[in-house]
Amino acid sequence: RILIFNAAAERIFRLGATEAIGTSIDRFLPSELREGHARKVAQYASSGTTTRTMGRAGPLRAQRADGEIFPIEATISRTDVNGRSLLTVILRDVTEREKLEAQFRQSQKMEAMGRLAGGVAHDFNNLLTVIRGGADFLLGELPSQGELRRDAEEILAAADRAAGLTRQLLAFGRKQVLQPEV
Predict the structure, then answer these.
(1) How far apart are CA 148 and CA 144, in angstroms?
(2) What pLDDT was estimated at residue 99?
(3) Digit-coded pLDDT (tens) for 61-80
(4) Residue 57 confidence (pLDDT) above 80
(5) Helix 95-141, helix 147-172: angle, nearest 10
(6) Three-state SS string across 12-59, please?
(7) Are β-strands 69-81 and 60-63 bridged in parallel, bridged antiparallel, or unpaired?
(8) What is the per-residue pLDDT for 81?
(9) What pLDDT is stored for residue 182 in this prediction?
(10) Rounded Cα–Cα distance for residues 28 and 50 (Å)
């Protein structure tokens, strides 16, 4: 049973102290966690030890009065008062931290994608140099008219379009645009 419910708990759980005091702490747990929690609390209350290792069993979840489930960190301590075992539970809502961690992971993924795009663009640019050089040599050997010349000119036009794609990949990868030089 809850004996004390401070102002921070009121904010976290969106419930007044008068509504919380005297009720079971289980009301603040998602329904699927209540049975296991009751066993763990009973074991902790009787022995003062817990089988849960911080960070090993995954994130803890709690439930606000309005039903919203959110991540928490919890610290529990046991105190004996007049022959009665009392548990003090200190909770921290870590919703914002989890959001920031998710944003950080996403930014790491984007950074990795940028590095990959830059690497692909660099390698692709090297291939385009060979393609473009070969097409230029071929054009130098072909007559000014004819189907083969049009084909070689198409190769050069495609290489130019591919160079534009390379520039976009380099921009995405935040790399400097390559300027091919002889």
Answers:
(1) 10
(2) 94
(3) 999 999 999 999 888 887 88
(4) no
(5) 160
(6) HHCCCHHHHCCCCHHHHCCHHHHHHHHHHHHHHHHHCCCCCCCCCCCC
(7) antiparallel
(8) 85
(9) 61
(10) 20
**Which residue, 180, 170, 9, 179, is CA-closest to 89?**
9
- Look at residue 16 in the predicted model and tell me its pLDDT: 95
Q: What is the 3-state secondary structure (H, E, C) of 112-162?
A: HHHHHHHHHHHHHHHHHHHHHHHHHHHHHHCCCCCHHHHHHHHHHHHHHHH
Average pLDDT of the residues of the chain: 85
Query: What Rg value do the Cα atoms of the chain yield, rounded?
Result: 33
Could you report how far apart the first and last alpha carbons of the chain are, in Å?
81
Burial 79-117 (b: 16+ CB within 10 A, else e): eeeeeeeeeeeebebbeeeeeeeeeeeeeeeeeeebeeb
Instruction: Classify burial at 67, counting beta carbons within 10 Å of its beta carbon; exposed 0-12, middle 13-18, buried 19 or more.
Output: exposed
| Residue 12 to residues 92, 126, 156, Cα–Cα distance (Å) | 8, 57, 64
pLDDT at 50 over 90: no
